Amino acid sequence: MTKSLKYPPPQHQDHDKLHMLEVVKTYPLATLISVKDNTPLITHLPLVYREDGKLIGHIDKFNPQVELLKDNNEVTIIFSGPQCYISPSVYTTTQLPTWNYIKVHLKGTVKAIESKDALKASLIKMTEFLEHPKHKYVLEADNPRMDAALDYIKMFEITITHWEGKFKLSQDKKKSDIANAKAELIRANKESIEVFLGKIF
Predict the structure, then answer these.
(1) What is d(CA 19, CA 30) in angstroms, rounded to the nearest whole number?
(2) CA-based angle 83:86:92, to the nearest 5?
(3) Under 8 Å between Cβ of 47 and 55
(4) CA gap 160, 2 in Å, rounded
(5) Comparing C-alpha atoms, which of 125, 119, 129 is closest to residue 153?
(6) What is the DSSP letter of 157?
(7) Residue 6: its pLDDT value, please?
(8) CATH architecture of 10-200
(9) 110, 100, 135: which is closest to 45 by C-alpha?
(10) d(Cα 116, Cα 121) in Å, to the nearest integer?
């Protein structure tokens, strides 16, 4: 297959919104980026995709990024799926080392939600989503710890204006090598979690 001279390589761009939504829903911990005076402000937090097509988030009111999460300011969001180094040894053909990954880049405009009732309902809804499918914990509406925390949490919603899926999964290789790279991605992610946690705990 002839190597593309375009960037990003078209074979690594996934334009299927359903594929991108699957990443957003499966890996909801997002990187949220705002820019002030040419300086990026970055926060890592879960964002949940709502039925109306908006992303909902909650942030500590003391986070300096809060002041930019309102007034239809523009934000960039990155959702990260599985990723790993791909050794040429996994291929049946001669290749060079590479890195495979799944990312979804979104752009949108943000609006602050000031209602405490909406915040409370949203926290309950987000917990329900994150507890899926076994729902071992239910955040009750009368939870006193949640009520005490409401004064310290800001809620916001993001209207998505641009979607970009970056699925670099050895698509430019022959079918057997694509399958081998997929198997390596699964294996490496399972193994790396165990090794990493063993080193820090």
Answers:
(1) 16
(2) 140
(3) yes
(4) 34
(5) 119
(6) E
(7) 83
(8) Roll (2.30)
(9) 110
(10) 8
pLDDT at residue 103, as a whole number: 98
CA-closest candidate to residue 78, choices 119, 37, 108, 36: 108
How far apart, in whole angstroms, are the C-alpha atoms of residue 20 and residue 22? 5
Q: What are phi and psi of 174, to 5 degrees?
A: -75, 165
Residue 40 has pLDDT above 80, yes or no: yes
Residue 21 burial (10 A CB sphere; 0-12, 13-18, 19+) = middle
123: how many CB neighbours lie within 10 A of its CB?
Answer: 20
Domain positions in the chain: 10-200
Average pLDDT of the chain?
95
State pLDDT tens for residues 166-192: 999 999 999 999 999 999 999 999 988
**Using CB atoms within 10 A of its CB, is residue 72 exposed (0-12), middle (13-18) or buried (19+)?**
exposed
Instruction: State the Cα–Cα distance between residues 18 and 141, nearest whole angstrom.
Output: 32
Give the tens place of pLDDT for each residue, 47-97: 999 999 999 999 999 999 999 999 999 999 999 999 999 999 999 999 999
Long-range CB contacts for residues 41-47, cutoff 8 Å, separation at least 24: 41/65, 41/68, 46/126, 46/130, 47/77, 47/79, 47/158
Return the pLDDT at 3: 57
